[in-house]
Amino acid sequence: MSQSPTDVEAPEPTAADRVCSLLTATSSVVVRACGEYHELDTPVSVHGAALRMCAPLDAPLTIAAARATEGLAVVLDLTDVAPVAVRDRVRGRVSLAGRLHLVHLADDGLSVHLRLDVAHAVLSTPYGTTALTGADLALAGPDPLARHEAGLLTHLADDHPEALAALTRLLDPNLLAERPDVRPLALDRYGLVLRLDHPHGHRDVRLVFPEPARDTEDFGLQVHQLLTVAHNRAPAHRH
Can you spell out the DSSP letters for 65-129? Predict the structure, then answer.
């Protein structure tokens, strides 16, 4: 991923942080167990290397977990898809392997709480693949904007095209030579990633916030500061 000239030394979320953020923001997962795929519509609660989720009481996965006294060997799969429509929307894939345990019956009497103790994980993105251990996840944490990323990005894309145009003033003009379509691809507390899409491919560029955003209100402040810098610059020249 390309970076703007001002973000050379700026930090980015670690691979483990990205996994935690993806887990925190998801509402469904796919679990591979006993040679079968099990789709669960459930949020995931991250507690270090232990993940909590729910499943129907009569689901095959629940029954298999109840029978496995030492935990059921499973792999949990997640796909990170950009909330804004762009070409090549898959931003990453993560697989987490470990033992699944049945914890207790939920209050509704129709579902159960499950705990996945993660032994290791693999995060794959267009920029590379990273192997992680459960210990890595235990030291990581989700981004404070993870649960709100989809709404913030779609709001920026749909309601503030003028802001996107202004932010391109912060980019190297050479990146705009082919008149790319500029769309917001991702964000985290450290910055905003723009997708520059042109007929022959695309390029992703990170704009780093002056200070890491602590919450959604602070995110708005950081974007405002970037826009202030952008408006004080001459428009980026497009050939």
Answer: HHH-TT-EEEEEEEEEE-SS--SS-EEEEEEEEEEEEEEEE-TTSSEEEEEEEEEEEEEEETTEE
